[in-house]
Specification:
4-stranded mixed β-sheet; 5-stranded mixed β-sheet; 226 residues; alpha/beta; 11 strands
C-alpha cells in the first residue's frame, strides 16, 4: 500500500488498413485524458487483427465481411471465441489517384482497369483469399502489386497509376486530397457486392467505457462521411 501507484488504463484496437478507423481513434484520443490511459492502435494484416483480439492484445478488431468471405471468416471467428458486430454496409469503389487516366469517370468497370496495376495488401504466410482486404481477390489480374502499408499503397497509386478496390470511405484528413473513390460498375461476371464493415470482440465480453467511446466515434465519423 505504501508504494501503491495509480496504474494507467489500457485500450487497444486492431484494424485492417482503414483510414477512417484511424481517424476515429484520433478523435477518441482527443476526448479522454491521455495521462490516465495507455492507448495502442494496430493497422495490420487480417489474421493478426483476429489473433490480437483473441489473445486479449486488443479489445476490438475492425474488418469486413462480404458474400465471398463471410462463411469462412465466421467459422474462424467461432473457432477463436469471437463475434462480429456490423457497423455499416457499402458498395465497392475504385480507389485511385486524381491524376489517374480514369479519374474523370462517374463509374469504372473491371474491363477498364485491366491495363493498370491492382494494388493489394500483403497478408504474409496466411495469404488466403478469404483474408484479402480487397474484394474480387480470386480474379486473375494482368498486373498486381503487394504492399505492406497504406502510405506505400498511396505512393504506388501516384507513381504507377495503380488502384485498389475498397469501401470508398476515405479519410481525406489522413490520406490527403490527391485521391478519389469512384463507384465500381459491376457486370455479369463481377457483380458489385456489399461490403459489411464492423468489429470483432471476444464472445460474451462487455465493451469497456473507452471501447464504447471508440465505437461511438466510429459511428459518428461514418454517419458524417457515408
Amino acid at each position: 500500500y505504501i508504494n501503491n501507484e495509480k496504474k494507467k488504463n489500457k485500450f487497444s484496437v486492431s484494424m485492417q488498413h482503414y483510414s477512417f478507423a484511424v481517424e476515429a481513434f484520433i478523435e477518441l484520443a482527443k476526448e479522454i485524458r491521455l495521462d490516465d490511459f495507455e492507448l495502442a492502435v494496430h493497422e495490420t494484416r487480417t489474421n493478426e487483427v483476429i489473433e490480437f483480439v483473441r489473445d486479449y492484445r486488443s479489445e476490438l478488431g475492425i474488418l469486413y465481411l462480404n458474400e465471398f468471405n463471410r462463411k469462412a471468416l465466421q467459422k474462424i471467428f467461432s473457432e477463436n471465441g469471437l463475434e462480429f458486430t456490423e457497423l455499416f454496409d457499402c458498395d465497392v469503389f475504385v480507389y485511385l489517384s486524381n491524376e489517374h487516366p480514369l479519374a474523370g469517370k462517374e463509374k469504372i468497370a473491371f474491363e477498364e482497369l485491366k491495363d493498370y496495376p491492382c494494388l493489394s495488401f500483403e497478408q504474409g504466410e496466411r495469404n488466403s483469399f478469404y483474408y484479402a482486404e480487397e474484394v474480387f481477390s480470386t480474379l486473375e489480374y494482368k498486373q498486381i502489386i503487394k504492399a505492406d502499408d497504406r502510405a506505400t499503397m498511396l505512393n504506388l497509386m501516384v507513381g504507377l497509376n495503380g488502384y485498389t478496390l475498397c469501401s470508398g470511405i476515405i479519410c481525406e484528413e489522413l490520406n490527403g486530397s490527391d485521391y478519389l473513390a469512384i463507384p465500381f460498375e459491376g457486370d455479369e461476371q463481377n457483380q458489385n457486392s456489399d461490403m459489411e464493415i464492423g468489429y470483432i470482440t471476444r464472445k460474451n465480453s462487455i465493451l469497456s467505457k473507452v471501447g464504447n467511446l471508440y465505437v461511438s466515434s466510429l459511428k459518428k465519423y461514418l454517419e458524417q462521411n457515408t
